[in-house]
C-alpha cells in the first residue's frame, strides 16, 4: 500500500500497538511507501480509558504529555527522513460524548496538525471494537438488538461528521467488526441503510474522503472498511477514497495491499486520493481552512499498480 493515511505505534499508543515510531517509519520506507500519515490517538477523558490504561495508571495529564511527545518526535523524524518518504502528521479522533469536541479542539489548538481522521470507536459511550463483552453491553444499552445498535452508531457518526467535517473519515462501518455477522448486507435493515446513505450524502457534500481500511481483512473479514455496497454508493455520489493499512506495528504496514487493490477493481473505483503537504501555506487550494498547507493529490488505480512497492512486496 504506497499511501497509508492511518497508522499507530507502540511508542505513543502503548498496549494498543507495538514498535517505536521510528521503526514504523523505517519499515514504511523499506516497503517503498510514497505517503505515510502518522495518526496516533488523541487524548481522552478518564472515564473513557481502556482497561489496560487504567491498570497501568495512566492519567489525563499523561495523555496530554504523550501527545506533546508524539508531536515532537514526529516532526523530528519527518525532518530526518524527508528525502525518503512523505510523512504527514495528524491524529485519530475519538468521538465518544459531547465533551469529546473540546478535547479535539484542544489538540488542534496545541499543535499544528495537518489533518485528523474522524472515527468512532464507541457507541453510547461503550467501546464497540474492543472485545465482545463491551460490544454486547453497547447493544443492550441501544435496546438489545444489533439493528438498533447499528442505527445508534450511524446517528452518532453523523453527529461527529457534522461537528468536525473530518477530511478523512475512518473505518466508516467499524460497527460490524464484533457483530454476529460482519458480512451481513446493511441493505437488509432499511432503517440502518437509510442512515448509511444519509451519512454518505453528508460526507460527499463537504468533500470528505473515505479511507479504504485494510485492517478489516487482517481481522478476518472479506472486505475492507467500508463494505463494497457502501463504496459503490459513495462512488455514485462523486465521493473520494484514500488508502489506509491502519497498522499497529511494523508487521502490519502495507499488509493485504494486493487484496485491497483487487477490491478497488471489484467496486469500480478507478482513482484514489492521497494527502500531501506544501512547503508554505496554500490556502487558496487547501481543502480545509484549518489545514492551510494540506493538499489532496490523486492517482489512477492503473498507475497505482505500476508503483515500485510491488518490487518491495
From TrEMBL:
BP GO terms, sorted: L-histidine biosynthetic process
Catalytic activity reads: L-histidinol phosphate + H2O = L-histidinol + phosphate
GO molecular function terms attached to this record: histidinol-phosphatase activity
One Pfam family name from the record? PHP
The protein's superkingdom reads: Eukaryota
Q: What is its EC number?
A: 3.1.3.15
The pathway it acts in is:
Amino-acid biosynthesis; L-histidine biosynthesis; L-histidine from 5-phospho-alpha-D-ribose 1-diphosphate: step 8/9
Main EC class of this protein?
Answer: hydrolase
Q: Give the UniProt entry's GO cellular component terms.
A: cytoplasm
InterPro entries the UniProt entry points to: Histidinol_P_phosphatase_HisJ (IPR010140), PHP_dom (IPR004013), Pol/histidinol_Pase-like (IPR016195)
Which residues does the UniProt record annotate as the domain PHP? Answer: 5-213
Q: In its keyword annotation, does this UniProt entry include Amino-acid biosynthesis? A: yes
- Ribosomal protein as UniProt keyword: no
Protein family membership: Belongs to the PHP hydrolase family. HisK subfamily.
Q: Protein name, please?
A: Histidinol-phosphatase
Question: What is the protein's species of origin?
Answer: Penicillium cosmopolitanum
Amino acid at each position: 500500500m504506497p499511501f497509508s493515511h492511518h497508522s499507530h505505534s507502540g511508542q505513543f499508543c502503548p498496549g494498543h500497538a507495538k514498535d517505536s515510531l521510528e521503526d514504523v517509519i523505517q519499515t514504511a520506507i523499506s516497503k517503498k511507501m510514497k505517503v505515510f500519515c502518522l495518526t496516533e490517538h488523541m487524548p481522552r477523558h478518564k472515564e473513557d480509558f481502556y482497561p489496560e490504561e487504567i491498570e497501568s495508571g495512566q492519567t489525563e495529564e499523561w495523555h496530554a504529555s504523550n501527545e506533546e511527545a508524539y508531536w515532537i518526535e514526529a516532526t523530528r523524524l519527518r525532518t530526518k527522513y524527508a528525502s525518503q518518504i512523505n510523512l504527514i502528521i495528524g491524529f485519530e479522533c475519538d468521538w465518544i460524548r459531547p465533551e469529546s469536541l473540546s478535547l479535539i479542539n484542544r489538540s488542534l489548538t496545541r499543535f499544528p496538525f495537518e489533518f485528523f481522521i474522524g472515527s468512532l470507536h464507541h457507541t453510547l459511550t461503550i467501546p464497540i471494537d474492543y472485545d465482545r463483552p463491551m460490544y454486547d453491553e453497547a447493544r443492550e444499552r441501544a435496546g438489545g438488538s444489533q439493528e438498533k445498535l447499528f442505527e445508534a452508531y450511524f446517528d452518532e457518526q453523523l453527529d461527529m461528521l457534522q461537528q468536525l467535517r473530518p477530511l478523512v473519515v475512518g473505518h466508516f462501518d467499524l460497527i460490524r467488526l464484533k457483530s454476529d455477522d460482519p458480512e451481513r448486507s446493511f441493505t437488509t435493515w432499511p432503517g440502518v441503510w437509510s442512515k448509511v446513505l444519509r451519512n454518505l450524502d453528508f460526507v460527499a457534500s463537504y468533500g470528505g474522503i473515505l479511507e479504504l481500511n485494510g485492517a478489516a481483512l487482517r481481522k478476518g473479514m472479506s472486505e475492507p472498511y467500508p463494505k463494497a455496497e457502501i463504496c459503490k454508493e459513495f462512488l455514485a455520489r462523486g465521493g473520494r477514497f484514500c488508502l489506509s493499512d491502519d497498522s499497529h506495528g511494523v508487521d502490519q504496514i502495507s499488509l493485504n495491499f494486493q487484496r485491497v487493490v483487487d477490491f478497488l477493481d471489484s467496486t469500480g473505483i478507478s482513482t484514489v486520493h492521497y494527502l500531501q503537504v506544501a512547503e508554505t501555506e496554500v490556502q487558496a487550494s487547501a481543502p480545509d481552512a484549518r489545514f492551510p498547507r494540506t493538499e489532496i493529490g490523486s492517482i489512477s488505480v492503473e498507475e497505482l499498480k505500476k508503483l515500485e512497492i510491488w518490487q518491495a512486496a
